[in-house]
Write the structure tokens for this entry.
Amino acid sequence: DTLSRAVISVAHEHKANVGVPGTQSGIGNTFGWANVNYRNQFGHLPHSEQAHLFAVNPGGNTFFPGNKRTSASERDQVFANTPVDSIITPFEAGWGMQGNAKYKSPYLNHVAYMEAIYQRLAHDQPKVMVVGNGGLYSIAEINESLKRDFDLILVEGTGRFADAAAVIIKHIDKIEIPNDPQKISEQVIALLRKILPADIAKEFFKKDFGSEHQTDNEDYQVFRTFFWNFLKLAKAKQRNIQTTSLEQLEQTLDKYLSK
């Protein structure tokens, strides 16, 4: 995978800590395999001369022997650990929650706990969040990171939130942020339809944002609220956010960490 290879390559050069998705689903699988390959190649080096991949996982959705927290979770929402060092938080993820219930998802507490750990580990060091693709809970993580003054690199060409947000960031000065989060839809939909590739826009609208200015779909409404919060943070922290492509990610990340 291009994204994981770029991140690990730069992390090795800078001996960086890398927080990755911690369960074996989606991109967590990719980073897990990438870490196995990395350790096979560089595991003989002293620890101080290696990149270090780790994860912070919600205890209620992470399988390991003796973990009783998973008993309340749906079986299809419990995943094995990614093969990296892991920190377990005392929360369930609530990934299966629907509609307005997502506002009270325990995963939001997990995110705050996780980002506090990242902030402490990165004290007095460069700290950046690399975003590829992403849905609702990715925005929750991104917003918490921005509140803690992490920088953000949005990787275009990876789909969904990353591509939509990259377009928005490039036109952020033209965006008027209303007091009602549901009223942001007209500007966002018009801008994305104009600039995003049709297939990427279609996926983002279908899975995340909705394609109509007004919607009764609670999942879309919740997403728009999280997206609205991102826009407010992005307006205030434009200098913290940059965009790049998959092809340029390694160079962008290396340049950032070399500052």
